[in-house]
Amino acid sequence: MLTLHQIEAPRTHDLRRLIQLASPFAPELNALCDRADALSLLAVEFRYPDNWRDVSDSEMSKMMALAEDFAAILPPLLNPRE
Description:
This protein is mainly α. The chain has 3 helices and no strands. The model has no long low-confidence stretch (mean pLDDT about 85).
């Protein structure tokens, strides 16, 4: 999304920050900001063995629902000609 709009994307896993940068072009992403914080944390947390923890089925379901919400919003914005 950022590259499409000639904005240099920072090297980050912070979805809130990426949403903030994309919000002028995709304001509908703002609704996902608060929930995205948890996904940002998980993206980094599980990369290192000393940070490993079990994820509950409920937490995994919430993260999957969030990913599906992103998937519903982003493709039409990334392919505006379709």
